[in-house]
Amino acid sequence: MRLFSLFKKKDENEYLPIPTHMKSILVPVGDKNSGFEATGKIKCPCGNECFEIWESNDRQIVTIVCTKCKEKVVLFDGGKHGWDAVMCGQDGLDREMPSRQFFCPECGENAFRITVYISSPGIVDFAENLSDGDAFTLDDWVNAFDWITVSLSCEKCGWVDEDWLDCETA
Question: How far apart are CA 100 and CA 88, in angstroms?
């Protein structure tokens, strides 16, 4: 993989497929992270790990709100994040559809810990698909992931959904 030798590694997570919009909130966990997949917990810059979940378009737009500082982040937007959105410009989502808050089906609470899994074809595959005139650069490879899975765990009762969102984006 000569392509990697073109870059100087800034930190140990630089070659993980963590999308740009998640760089400050996704903390890698486990020992299976690579240039093709990354798993991490979501942690607010304030240090909190519990979030309210809001979704629309059948979970194709997922916004999280920190239960401590109320920071709001779009965790996933199928019209902006992932291979088809980045490489093909596909966005067929209804931006006028209101968001609904998600509540634990067991206890009714609205505070969750979040784990995200990202799968990527990798930087080499992305580079092979670049062409002159593209609106993106090689640095955007992390945004062209091909799968995302979001797992939720209720802070109050411990209810878990391992694939609350399980979406192919390519």
Answer: 28
Whether 66 contacts 46, CB under 8 Å:
yes
* H/E segment holding residue 150: strand 147-154
> 151: which residues sit within 8 A by CB, 6+ positions away?
114, 115, 116, 117, 160, 161, 162, 163, 164
Strand pairing partners for 101? Answer: 54
Question: DSSP label at 116?
Answer: E
Domain range for residue 36?
Answer: 2-168
- Does an H or E element contain 84, and which? helix 83-88
pLDDT of residue 132: 76
AA identity, residue 122: G
Closest CA to 147 of 60, 83, 51: 83
The alpha carbon of residue 8 and the mean position of all alpha carbons in its chain are separated, in whole angstroms, by 25
Spatial distance between the Cα atoms of 112 and 120, rounded to a whole number of angstroms = 26
- What predicted TM-score, i.e. pTM, was given to this entire model? 0.89
- What is residue 138's predicted lDDT score, i.e. its pLDDT? 86
Question: How many structural domains does the chain have?
Answer: 1
Q: Which two tokens stand for residue 145?
A: 């992931």
